[in-house]
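Protein 1 of 2
SEQ + STRUCT:
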Amino acid sequence: MQVNNRLQEESFRYTADKKNMSFRVDDIEKLSDINTYCDKINESIIFNDNIWGIEVEADVELADWVYSSIGTGGTDDRRIVAEILSKQGFEKTAGNSILISLGEWKDSVSSVKEYVINRRKILSKINNPNEYFDFMKSCFIDSCFADDILAEMKHIQNFPDHAEEITKNLAVLNDEAIKLYCRYKNNLKIAIDEISTKLLACSLDPAHRDSLWFSFTYEDIHTDVRCEPHLKLIRNDSDLRIYFYWKDDRIANGKKVLIGRIGRHPWSK
């Protein structure tokens, strides 16, 4: 799966509401956040070279604003824009596009939150577990997936029917699990109950704890972690689960939630 991160060049043009670049400080910061996210997943932002001739203020083109310090705006803002535009990407021959803008713009995203939502929408429509796996990590950068997680995903029956629900559950874990752990680490039942209010159900499985160890590799660290908490998908008695653990200080200094398994129970009934 390929994504074209397309910059809306016209979003840089000045308007009556944003008549000079001193009005674009927040917009530039948000665009920088999207650019940083793209860097983390080894992607770039695509734009046309005509962007340099766009007037960002009356009679001030972007190239002159960035490199000649003409017009309003701080040095840091000019440096940030220059950095973003110095890493121009190349359009993929096939794939989805996410339109990115400086500030709010029709049919475009202007914050990293909106950008990630759009990536996950693309993910939820992928019908093949191999393709889903390949694209998955770029949508959940605060998660670490077990080494053999794809092998089990291939066994999910009617995978296209469940891709959206899997994506929704992974999003909650990626965005909230570590925060909940840090808040309720002395009573994780509260964290489990809070996740259950957002999804179908979250619970423990003390009867099968010995079967819930999964191998993780992160950079030069390889370790096994027991992922007993699990999310139930489809319905409470289904055989489709997501097993996870909140965090492990040996992996990414405890900054990633650990996803041990997406699929069936890892034990025989």
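Protein 2 of 2
SEQ + STRUCT:
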Amino acid sequence: MSPSPRDLAEMAAAIEGTEVAARQWLQAGFSPGDAAAYVRAGCFDVDRTEELRRANITPSQIAALGLGWDFCAGKVAVEDLRVNGGGQAKTPMLW
């Protein structure tokens, strides 16, 4: 099902982006509020941001790390952002 013009306009305003970008965020199941929070945290790639969501990494967590842009650019792996099995992941600045 295609998003309504109202949904597209609301998402585009939330992410301060184009209708094409808004459609991508909506099709991935993001609400305007969640998408906007990830975008403010530096996330620009919807598919990579979905990885964060699947890994239960919230917008505030990725924002605190300051790695949203680097993650979406492929410079940081999701494994480097998580705590694995009680021990710290490769990046020392994790929660």
